Amino acid sequence: MEHIISTPTMKAPAERFTGAVYLNMIEAPTEPARLAAALVRFTPGARTNWHSHALGQVLYITDGVGLVGTRDGKVVRVSAGETLKCPAGEEHWHGATDTNLMAHMALVVGDGNGDGTTWLEPVTVDQYAAALTVLGD
Q1: Quick one: which of 53, 90, 40 has its CA closest to 70?
Q2: Per-residue pLDDT at 101
Q3: What is the pLDDT of residue 28?
Q4: Can you name the residues that pair with 36 across neighbouring β-strands?
Q5: How far, in Å, are 14, 45, 92, 93 from residue 86 at the CA level?
Q6: CB distance 110 to 82 below 8 Å
Q7: Predicted confidence (pLDDT) at residue 135 exceeds the cutoff of 80
Q8: Fewer CB within 10 Å, N side or C side of the chain?
Q9: What is the pLDDT of residue 80?
Q10: How far is CA 41 from CA 93, 96, 134, in A?
């Protein structure tokens, strides 16, 4: 048994996120285990870049209100207590609304070469605004 008393909060890397995002790594994938788990906190307007996961991703929303968008224009509004599953290979982004923070547990099963995440370009201001419009925010 390993008892971890705390994990440090760090600012998420600017090359993968827009706005102020903070994360606590709960577990990193090290062989033979492949689970990556993090608590990620987004301030209003903050979001990930477009990205995909080789084996998919599970997001469990712990606080606030957020958005998850896909390349085909689908946008889902998520709130505390909800779970969203992103399929393997699907390009998507997630973050807070423009008026509320959002926090989630991000769970990813690695592909044997790290966590299997492919990071892409930032979500543009227009793409983010369109997501808010779809939801009526």
Answers
A1: 90
A2: 98
A3: 83
A4: 108
A5: 23, 21, 8, 10
A6: no
A7: no
A8: N
A9: 98
A10: 14, 9, 23
Per-residue pLDDT of 8-22, as tens digits, reads 999 999 999 999 999
Minimal CA–CA distance to 99: which of 70, 115, 77, 71?
77
Structure tokens at 84: 């969203």
- Amino acid 115: pLDDT: 81
Tokens standing for 95?
Answer: 């973050």
Output the CA torsion 126→91→9→97 (10° steps). Answer: 40
pLDDT tens-digit readout, 47-64: 999 999 999 999 999 999
- Which residues share a beta bridge with 79? 65
Phi, psi of 55 (to 5 degrees): -120, 15
Cβ atoms < 10 Å from Cβ of 108: 23
Chain segment 65-75, per-residue pLDDT in tens: 999 999 999 99
Structure tokens at 92: 């998507």
Place of tokens 């477009």: 50
What's the CA gap between 105 and 59, in Å, rounded? Answer: 6
What is the residue type of 7?
T
